[in-house]
Structures are given as C-alpha cells and as structure tokens.
Amino acid sequence: LSDATTPNKPKVVVCRHLGPAMPQLERRTDIDLVCWPEDRFCDRAWLLHNVKGATGVIVLLGDAVNEEFMAAAGQQLKVVSTMSVGYEHIDLQATARHGVRVGYTPDVLTEAGKPSDVLAITSQLCWGNLAWSPFKLCGPQLSTTLSSPKRTVGFLGFGRIAQATLARLVGFGITHALYTGSPSSNAQSVSARDAELQTRYRLQGLERVDADRLAQESDVVFVLTPGGKETYHLVGEAFLRKMKPLSILVNTSRGSVVDSDALAKALHEKWIWGAGLDVVEGEPFIGGDHPLVKEPRCVILPHVGSATTETRLDMATRAIDNVIGGIFGGEMPSELK
Ligand code: DGY
C-alpha cells in the first residue's frame, strides 16, 4: 500500500484495512490504493489530507462524509462506498449535489443478526458468577407460560433485519408481533407493503400500530429503525414510560435512536425490566462512568450485530465491488439511490 499515487490511475482511499478482503483491492493494477494504516478509526486529518484527488473512497460508520469531505476530495470524486448497511454518516444531499454515487451493504448482514441481547438480558448473564438461588438471576420468559399465554414483540422499524429477527423469534414461541413504519413513509406505498407483510406474517398476528400502542403492549421492543435526524431519541422518556414494567428494550440499530439518559432512568426507577444494547449513543467512546454501564439489568455489547467472519467478508467484498463499479462508471451491486 502506498501513499504515492500514479497519474492516470484512479486513486482509491480505504479508511480501514479490510483484512482478508484486502487482496481483492491490492492485486488490482488499475488503481492506486491508499489505506489508513492503523486498526482504529481513521484520523479525520489523515482522511482529509489523503482523500485529495481520490476517485473512490471506502468508509466505515464513524467517517463523516459531508461538504468538508467533498471539498477536501475534489471534483474528480465519483463514489463513496460504506462498509455498512447504515448510512447516516453520509450527507446524501451533499453527495447528490456533487454527483457522487453512494454504495452500501444491505442484505449481506441480515442473517448475521442474533437476538443475543434479549437472551442475555432475560437470564441476566452478566451476573452469572453469583451463587444459584431460586429466584436470583431470573428474568421474564420470552416464550408463553401458563400464567402468560400471549407474548408480544414490537419492532420500531420493520425492514429486512427486523423481519429476520422475527423469523428467529418464532422458535421462541412469540405469538403476536407489532411494528411501526418509518416516520416519513409514504402512506400509499405503506399500505401495499403492509398488506404484503401482514399476509407473510399472519401466523405471528403481525399488526402495524403507532408507537404508543407498541410501547404499551410489547414484552420486548426491538429498535431496528435507521439512525439520523428523523429518528433521533425516538425512544425517550415519553416512550419508555409507556412500556410495561416487565418489558425489555433491545437496540441493535443506532445509539442515537435511544436517549441513554432516559433509558438509564427507566432502568433505575424500574419503569422497564431490562435493556440489551448493541449500540449506544456516543460509541465507540463510552466510558465506565456512563449511567447505563452502572445498571445491572443492562447488557451492552460493542456493536457486534454483524460480527461473523462470513458476514464481515461479504460486507467488505460488497463495499469493494461498489467502489470499483463506481470509479469505472459501471454497475454498483448496492447503490443507494
Ligand atoms: C451496519 O452495517 O450499519 C451495522 O450497524 C454494522 O454492523
């Protein structure tokens, strides 16, 4: 990997070494490759310096693609490819203004999702070193029981990952599923999509409801809506106060969707039973003094929802195929329109 580029070959900047996928870029003789050399988020100053003259850039979640980035890159920039399904770090209006194509990695990570957070929190795994005792370490059961013949899961956002999660939860005995649409969804396309979804998941009694009803009726709420301004703090004090005292909140989408202070208060004051978080506001820089870290019924994972070797390899390969398609003016397998 070199920092010196050759004229006439398109320059491709990669913001993090892509491990076993990297040879797919390194063996190409038709590009000049520049890669951030460290295994941590790319320094902004390094990125702004190196992106100058680039035709394509592969970014990760923490790399803001905005006007500053576009100005640093220059007019020859053709494509930004993010190795993620989420894209709230990319200012799509700015990329559109500059005619820059955007690639992302949907589908390839849908199946990696595991309801591990909810399983961890229902049995309080983090306290598993305490001695056995009849009711210690117990949590609400996910499947139906004699005393609770109905179990309801609610999905804030019902895209590909939410549907794959519901498919897995069926095996746990979930009998009823609720979902909300995106706050900006178009009413007409929504009703066609709703009808199709409700037919597909009729055995789970799938219903589209508003956020209030979802909060009030769900035993487990899964936050699976995209991040960004539109969904900022969608789960705040008002939502949490409507949830049931034995319910669990699981967030595997973006930290910004859940107000962490309100959630810490909800756990502390027992408005809800527990929380499983794969993402938290401010990640990856969460200190040990974060109020959620002190809550015993909060399991926090370090954003590992897609962390299987196969899925990450597929994501990296998709990001590479997108950048190559974009720099040579060809098809991008997953282009964000
Ligand atoms: C994504 O791709 O957006 C995920 O959050 C990372 O696994």
From TrEMBL:
Annotated ranges, domain D-isomer specific 2-hydroxyacid dehydrogenase NAD-binding: 149-305
GO molecular function: glyoxylate reductase (NADPH) activity; hydroxypyruvate reductase [NAD(P)H] activity; NAD binding
InterPro entries: D-isomer_2-hydroxyacid_DH (IPR050223), D-isomer_2_OHA_DH_cat_dom (IPR006139), D-isomer_DH_NAD-bd (IPR006140), NAD(P)-bd_dom_sf (IPR036291)
Record Gene3D superfamilies: NAD(P)-binding Rossmann-like Domain (3.40.50.720)
Swiss-Prot/TrEMBL keywords: Oxidoreductase
The keyword Oxidoreductase is assigned to this record: yes
Residues annotated as domain D-isomer specific 2-hydroxyacid dehydrogenase catalytic: 13-335
Superkingdom assignment: Eukaryota
Protein name: Glyoxylate reductase
Organism of derivation: Mycena chlorophos
